[in-house]
Amino acid sequence: MRRFISSIRPAAGLAALLACLPSSGQTPLADQALFASITVPGNLALALSVEFPTAITAAHTGATYNSASTYVGYFDPNKCYAYNYQPKEEDRHFYPTALAANH
Predict the structure, then answer these.
(1) How many angstroms separate the Cα of 47 from the Cα of each of 11, 32, 33, 44, 57?
(2) Cα separation of 79 and 98, whole Å?
(3) What is the rounded distance in angstroms from the CA atom of residue 57 to the CA atom of residue 78?
């Protein structure tokens, strides 16, 4: 029994010491840019929807392409595009080559 009590005392002392230390989860987080020299108010608001029906819904519900329809996206539907491949990825891009005769 004496051996058991003597092993509890150091553990209790260590627990008391750890309880006195400050918590590391109290770090204040910056709400502005870290390297900005001037104060700029926030100018971005995202209204994201990750609800079940919208997270799995296709943008276009038709099963096939319809040339009579105008599809909204990144590219102008009235132009034809080509891809400029470069060894460096940041230099790769699409560019318009002609006006489209049909979607």
Answers:
(1) 51, 20, 22, 10, 17
(2) 6
(3) 26
**pTM of the prediction?**
0.38
Query: Alpha helices of the chain — where are they, by DSSP H?
Result: 2-20, 52-55
CA atoms within 13 A on the CB side of 103: 11
pLDDT tens digits, one per residue of 43-82: 777 767 666 665 566 666 667 777 788 877 788 888 999 9
- Residue carrying the six token digits 């460096």: 88
Torsion of CA 87, 92, 98, 103, to 10 degrees: 120
Beta strands in the chain (DSSP E): 79-84, 93-99
> Which pair of tokens denotes residue 87?
């060894």
Length in residues, the chain: 103
CA distance 40 to 63: 46
